[in-house]
Amino acid sequence: MRISRRPISSTPLGMAVKRFSKSVNQTLLNAMPDHIFTSERAIKTFERIGKYISPAENRAILGATALGLQVGIDAMNHRVDEETRKISIARTIAKIIAGTFTGFTIRKALIKSVDAFSKLPSSLGKDGKPVQLTRLNTFFSPITKVLANSDEYQNYKNGLGNVLALIVMTFTNFAIDLPLTRFLTNEFAEIGGLNNEKS
Amino acid sequence: MKNLSNLVSESFMNIKNSLMRQFGEDPGKMLLHTGTLGWILSSLAQVSAVVFNDKIPKKQKSFLIPQEIADGCVNIASFYLFTNSFTKFANKMVSTGKWRTPAIDAFLKKYNLKKHIGSVDFNIKELANFDEIRPAYKAIASGNAIAASTIGSIISCNIVTPILRNKFAADRQQKAIARIEQNEKPKLCYPKGISLDTFQRYAAAHSSNGMKI
What we know:
The complex is a heterodimer. By secondary structure, chain A is an all-alpha fold. Chain A has a domain at 55-191. Helix content of chain A is 65%, strand content 1%. The model of chain A has no long low-confidence stretch (mean pLDDT 86). By secondary structure, chain B is mainly α. Helix content of chain B is 74%, strand content 1%. Chain B has six helices and one strand, in the order αααβααα. In chain B, α2 runs antiparallel to α3 and α2 (27-51) runs parallel beside α5 (134-184). Chain B is elongated, with a radius of gyration of 32 Å. Chains A and B meet through α1, β1, α2, α3 and α4 of A and α1, α2, α3, β1 and α5 of B.
């Protein structure tokens, strides 16, 4: 049997999907209002979001909103009996707290570490003078023409820090998240009126 | 040995350069890809947490284990699909000029490109003289991508996923409870079923004129 080497996007089905996706995008774009951000404050907000929201802050925002939204959704789940609902809420809160705590802390620490070990010739020290480059402080530095203080380089450091954090979290998920979630679930279940034997 | 060391060092440099290319320009993409990987790992840990918690009774486990598996699958799929679509669409809003700053507006006016605003095929970044507004464009594009990716994740992980997983897990729990209850019912041990042949032989041997219902 001969296998076609044509990319999926150039097959009739692929092209139909592409056309459909394009037309949906165009319809949505047409439905959206045209907007010019004239306020300096709005533009500055976009700049700040781009500069300061790293994957660590992103994880913290997700956790904070999860506490309000997910717990509410679990509390309104009347498809299950009351006891199950209570333990489900306890577990959701425990999971959010444990996951957000480790997720934020490890990401933040790894991004800081990557920052310390990815100096470029344009990197400045605390005294405003160029940093002396060593094998160690350039360990994570790529070959790049961008400046050390550019957004692109900050994005790279955030991305690499996040990837390393995920590797670390493969272990901490079992070493920290798991026991912490279990402990907190039992604590919250007790507070919710389910005794330990039951919960 | 030296070759191996060179190979490792070269591969490491290639990874760093590739990450620089992938994530440097598009922080929204970085959040999406690393976020998906993160959900896969965290789902694995969360399922284990329920499986190995002895304090959760069997009845609740029958709800919580499928809840976790469902949570994981829906989380990963909805995170990727929803956040990706949301981020891509928000990026399109900026790249087609639908959302723009006065600097970008002036640039489009200068080159008589305002008629293309909002067309799905139009991309400011692909214009030959894009370098003129690169800083102004980046100022809004990076923040917009991160904000879209964050809002997309909030909707997918904190609203869509819990609703879907609760529905899925509740259905599974009902089935599991029904199965447990079925198993707990006493089994009929006697009389054992007999074949039609045996029945016919027995009937012939003990024939009766009347038929009892």
